[in-house]
Every structure is written in C-alpha cells, then in structure tokens.
Amino acid sequence: MPRVPGVRGRLKDIPVPGHKRVLLAAPRGYCAGVDRAVIAVEKALEHYGAPVYVRKQIVHNIHVVTELEAMGAIFVDEVDEVPEGAHIVFSAHGVSPAVVNAASDRGLHAIDATCPLVTKVHREAVRFARDDYEILLIGHEGHEEVEGTAGEAPDHVTLVGSPDEVANIEVRDPDKVVWLSQTTLSVDETMETVRRLREKFPNLADPPSDDICYATQNRQVAIKKVAQDADLVIVVGSANSSNSVRLVEVALEYGAKAAYRVDYASEVKQEWLDGVETVGVTSGASVPEELVQELLLALSDAGYGDVAEVKTAEEDLMFSLPKELRKDLAGNRDERALGGRNRPVQ
Ligand code: SF4
Predict the structure, then answer these.
(1) Ligand 1 atom with minimal separation from the 243 CA
(2) What angle do CA 88, 126, 34 make, to 5 degrees?
(3) Which of the residues 42, 134, 144, 145 is marked catalytic?
(4) Domain-ending residue, one of 176, 200, 224
(5) For the domain that residue 27 is a member of, what is the CATH number?
(6) Mind listing the pLDDT tens digit for each residue in 245-280?
C-alpha cells in the first residue's frame, strides 16, 4: 500500500483514491476436517493401491475431486456401486448408520473420513433421540451432512431449512424439543432461526456446544471484516460447497458491493472489476490454497498486485487420520501436518 505524505499513524490502512488493492481474508481455505479427509484418500491409494472408492465427493470441491480421480479414486453415489471386498472411504460430510450397514453387508473395507466435528453432531442426535427429544435440525434439505445426521435418528428429526420455515413447524411435545444444526451454515441466519424457534417453543433446548464448526465461523468472521472495505468480494469454492456459498451471502450482507463465487481464476469476468478499487478474496473450507494463489496472480495481472492479509484468527487444530487407516498404516508413520485451530488474533 503506498504511503500518504504528511499523514501520521496507520498509514498502510489509508487507501489512496484510485489505488487498486486486494484484501485477503484469513483464515480461509482448508479446515482440519477437509485436510484429514483428502489425506485419507491419498494415503488409502498409496497403501492399498488404486482403485479406492469414495462415497460422494470426499469434500465439496471439484478441483480436489478431479485430482484424486487422476490418482485412482473412483467416486460413487452409493455403496452398491462398489465391487464386493473393495476399499471405500466415507466423505467428510458423514454417513447415516444405514450406509455403514450397507457397506458392511457388502463386505467392503470402509474408512470413515467423517469430520470429527460432524461426528459430534451425530452423537448429539443419538443422545437426544434416546432421551425422546424431537430434534429440530437446522440445515439444507438434500445436503449429505444433513442426510447423515438425520439418519442417526430418523423418527426424531424434523428439518428446518430457514427462519421462514419455523412458522410451519409442528412438534409432538413443545417441552421436549432441541435444535441442532449443520456445521456449515451462516451463523447469523442460524441464530435468527433459533430465535424464532424459541419464540414458538420457549423450552427449546440448546446443543451442548456450537454445531456450526470453528472453520465455518472463522471464515465468516474474516470475510465480514474484509467485506466492509471491499467493492467486490471473490470467494473461491464450488457451487455445492455450503460454506463457500454462505461466504458470498455474508460478504453481501456485510457491505461488499458485489460478491461472486468461482471454482477457478479463469471464471472471473472482466466486467466484475469495472470501477473496483478494493477486491476482497477468500475461499471455502474445502479449497486448496493453490487456487487462491492462482486468483491472486490473475488479479495482479489486472492491476491488483497490492495484497494485504486481514487476519481474524489463528488455526492450528489437527485431527488424526481415520482409525481404520491408522491401524493399517501402523509401523508406516506419516508425520504430515493436518489442519488449523481456532485462536483469535488480537
Ligand atoms: S467445515 Fe467444519 S465440519 Fe466441515 S469438514 Fe471442515 S472442520 Fe469439519
């Protein structure tokens, strides 16, 4: 950032009119659960040899899926597409017990790469169902994570897709209801849904801890800060990535004049940059950093070579590999670092 002559203080924060710059949100990109899931497939391919089957996209990013396919992974929708006795990896979004049982019945060797933070929500669903609560699960219909969580207690779960749906929710016993949520939702919208649910069911119970995960929350906090100063926000992430799509929405809510999602830098349209001084950049939790770096290069070519990082948290959370893999890899230790952690930056 160029300095303004004769002005004291935080000169680097003072934009010069007409100066093109990028504000790069941090944290962004890979979370601990995605990192673990992708490495699980890579390690499975190395250890067992190709092909290794993966139920659904291991994480919701087309680039990651394409790269793993090139290495020998085969992505399927359901376990009955997998040859008996083969290795199958369950994606980071989790699976219902019915899927686990179907894989077992087929004699598949399953490696469960469900993010531990999704597993935590599954356990909550099981526990509240056991205590005969009706579970109001806030999430998006058809999303794999929601299907997996609901599948833990199908007779006890009612899906709530948005604040507006609350008006139509009916329950058996209004004094025995709890809300849980998908891990990758908008924090603000979810709180609004909960507010309306509590208005309707004053004795609504809360989950024991946040279901929206640290990575989703951190990326939203960072883009809120960036969006306040951005004419345009570009989110790198795939269309089926819930947390990436939420970042576009949050950027618009918090002041960005425009916000778009792209899988690749080549999708950025020249007209998006017309009259734009400050471009905010971030990426969803399933996006490798190389895709962000490619976007920064393209922006630099377009005159936005000045990049300042806006960091709102440090992350160094790590998850160990799925236990099935750890067992098979025992004696063949891999020290590759995983993930990040949720530590606020002052
Ligand atoms: S976004 Fe959150 S819940 Fe999903 S894989 Fe990452 S850490 Fe886990």
Answers:
(1) 1
(2) 40
(3) 145
(4) 200
(5) 3.40.1010.20
(6) 999 999 999 999 999 999 999 999 999 999 999 999
